[in-house]
Automatic annotation (TrEMBL):
UniProt entry tagged with the keyword ATP-binding: yes
UniProt KW keywords: ATP-binding, Nucleotide-binding
GO molecular function, one term: ATP binding
Source species of the chain: Micromonospora phaseoli
Limits of the HTH luxR-type domain: 813-878
GO cellular component, one term: cytoplasm
Lineage: Bacteria, Bacillati, Actinomycetota, Actinomycetes, Micromonosporales
Keyword ATP-binding on entry: yes
Name of this chain's protein: Regulatory protein, luxR family
PROSITE patterns: HTH_LUXR_1, HTH_LUXR_2
GO biological process: regulation of DNA-templated transcription
SUPFAM superfamilies (UniProt xref): C-terminal effector domain of the bipartite response regulators, P-loop containing nucleoside triphosphate hydrolases
Amino acid sequence: MGRAEELDRLRLALSGARGRGVFFTGSAGIGKSRLLHEGVAALPGEEYAVWRIAASATTEAMAFGGLVQVLPVEQPQGLSPAGILRWAVNVLQQQAAGRRIVLAVDDAHLLDPPSAALVHLVARADNAFVVGTLRDGEQIPLPIRALWTDGLVERAELSPMTPTETTNLLTAILGGQVDSGSADRLGRLSAGNPLLLRELVHAANTGGEFTEKYGVWTWTGRLELAPSLTELINIRIGQLTPGVRAVVELVAFGEPLGLRLLHQAVEQHDVEYAEERGLISMVESDRRLDVRLAHPLYGEVVRRQCPVSRTRRLQAHLADLLEKVGKRRREDLLRVARWRLASGTAQDPAMLIAAAGEAFARYDIPLATRLARAALDAGGGFDAAELLATILMFGDRPAEALGVLDAVATDTGEDERLSRWLTVRGMVSYWGLSQPSTVEEIATQGAKLTDSAAQARVRAFEAIMRLHRLEAPTALRLAQGVLDRPAASVAARELARCTIAHLQAVQGQLSRSAAAVDLVQAKVASWRADMPYLQLAVELARGTRLALSGDLTGIDTLVADEFADLADAGDFRLGTGYLAILRAYAARLRGRSDTALQAALGACAVLATSQVYAGWAQAERAQAAALRGDARQAAEAIAEADRLHSPNMGVLYPWLEQARVAALAAGGDLTGAVDRLHDLVDRLRADGFVGHETLALHDLVRLGQAGAPTGPRCSDGSRRSVAQRLTELSEQVDGELPPLLARHARAAANGAPEQLLAAADGFMDLGLALPAAEAAAGAVHLLRQRRSPDAAAARERLAALLSCCDMVHTPALQAATPTLTDREWQVARLAADGGTSRAIGEQLFLSARTVENHLQRIYSKLGVASRAELKAALRTIPGRGGTTAT
């Protein structure tokens, strides 16, 4: 897995093209032995005489012990050491019988001196090659080291697997897709080491810590280390003196630990020895040198093997040390609180509340929950309860959050505290428990408040709830009212601004929406401590704008920024799921249906118990499945979307309805799909969601309805066409995409292939490979019907666009592609590859005349006149010639 380049390097070395061999070095378990085995296993026995040598500690002490599998049992007596070496070389040459000699030496650092000398001597023979593996940090015999210092062989470092390779290996091990958060955590724990990764997965599987939902495997995060894995780590750590063990244990519980802080707790020479042994490493962080364990699993093993009493003492000691020198960094508060909590010395509720807020601001939901609960238990009162309930809400535990809030309902005397209680309870009941009456309840209670700032806070929450319930005019009025109140807090004002930004996006005011989001982000330092969850509203407004504008680069940036990293690392599932939906959307527009489906399934798995975005995730899954021509899965996903979608997230209805249309079209019900789209367009026009309306109208274009009437009748009794309405909206909706959609619609309505190809070029300028291919397919269809000589060039253009996609099946592509039977496809493919009629007939058990008849029908269907044109035309057939489906 992920070793193609190294395998090629090994094969080149064995061919003689690059020296006489190669040695791979790396840590234990990195995959050196497997690579060596795979590299020599495929060598043909008639050309190569291969000897596999597995050196070990048991053979290291005896002469030629490393080559005991190769040399004869009886050795000649009375020969000098040099004579024995010459004899051994002659034996190998005799056994090779003229073939090329290959010595494949695993763990060559364990070779005894005579064996190492023999390997070096063999490598100098003209017909011999030496390949092998070496473990990092081991003493290498001088004859082996001389192999690359003398230029006989190459030496290559085998690096850890990349995150992508780790994910692929996890998928292979588990037999299915793994969610990104689980893959990232397991990748960090294994540090890209395949052996350790396998052991981790085995341990988690044995303990039932993997769950499967919608075909996606998710790790709970709980880890029971298998004895084999613990033993492997213990061997690497080795025996430690008490001083060095203290270093390793302190770093295990405190990493990253400042070097100066560590020196206050242990002897400096013990730190230096631990670093020399490869147990710890130094990492520069700003102007401080931090100490970390050399491997993440060292910490897992050390922490589990440390007695409870010593664990608590060490963590309390770390907290004392950091408090003594002063909490100078932002993360120091969180570290002290974590150590105090784990050591049982946490007594200050204010400190725990502050730390819980810091953890929540980093979207570390599990840690924030533990700290907030500890603060409540320590007497933190209302402040701790409010924070804990908020965290529980975003940890997908709304019922528990409601219980925490109700327990402090009598402790809400003043307006400021009551407004906080009302808004948190409103969040929990509206989004967490899907209770629609929440909006009226919060509005009634908010009206009773006399403090202007407290009232503004409640109104800001009411505004975003009403937007999600599709009461856009009321939402806008409330949000604008909050912005107009000088007494409103920064957090309340920016929440109101997010509501307006989201509304502006769906109304097509994309530039104003972007400006509003930028204003919110500019004040993030002022509202993050009060409302860290406001970031989700920011991202929803921003993501909606980017999706409606077709800004794939912007989506890529959004899903790769700090929020995405924090959400994945901190188990903030709403954030992770939402970003996965955006990834799926962007991949779909690029025509990458496989990536789109994987991302959508990941979102469905992460949001399976959510009341907020679960329906949207299923809708995107339906879109991806429909794009792949999987009508069954698309229908299943729509059924799940209907079951999971909360009415309190009504603002998302355009995405769900567009997905329903895609599912109908994939199932062959084009009439039903068109009728649904017309209904959706009418609804969007009535709601004023013209940003969404442009996409729905373009879906009609994709279904061949560019000239169909839409909307109400004009004064003269006529109705505008889809193309005309899109042209009208292109002057109202911001961005580059609406004019391009209108251009595509006009070209389709006018039957203008040149304009369709120009539209395809415009789509590709934005990276939108799927609509580009559909526009080009429309041009090919028209040119083929007209028997135009330009059809061949258009087919080449379509083939190039389809090569950017993978498996794509859409009505627009299929309508422009004549249907070939399976037999016709077989004949066409063989003919395009240069097969004669007789040769094709013999291969398919047909007569030459029958093949000719098939070819005549194929040429007529595809509008081609030669084998060269046929070959180009086949590449434009989605799912066969033009995608990787074959």
